[in-house]
Amino acid sequence: DAVDDRLRACGHAVIIDLHSYPQTPSRFEDPAAARPPLCIGTDPVHTPDWLIAATRGAFASLGEIEENTPYAGCYLPLRHYGHDRRV
Questions:
Q1: In 5, 46, 57, 73, which residue has its Cα 20 to 30 A from 18's Cα atom?
Q2: How far apart, in whole angstroms, are the C-alpha atoms of residue 85 and residue 82?
Q3: Residue spans of the chain under pLDDT 70
């Protein structure tokens, strides 16, 4: 509903998906995957390069920042997923 509200009000909605995870891998994770201080969840349809750059800049003080590792993908309401580039 919040995304739809922003679409009505502004014509677009930005969701910044920052994954958090415990210091040691959970049972369902790949223990060999990188575990940077910050993982940015991205999607090839919905995450433009400028947004990745802005997010990296905003959180640069955290040190190493990776995309989609150890978790991959991002949160997006299914009714917009894969086709609505405004989100």
A1: 5
A2: 8
A3: 19
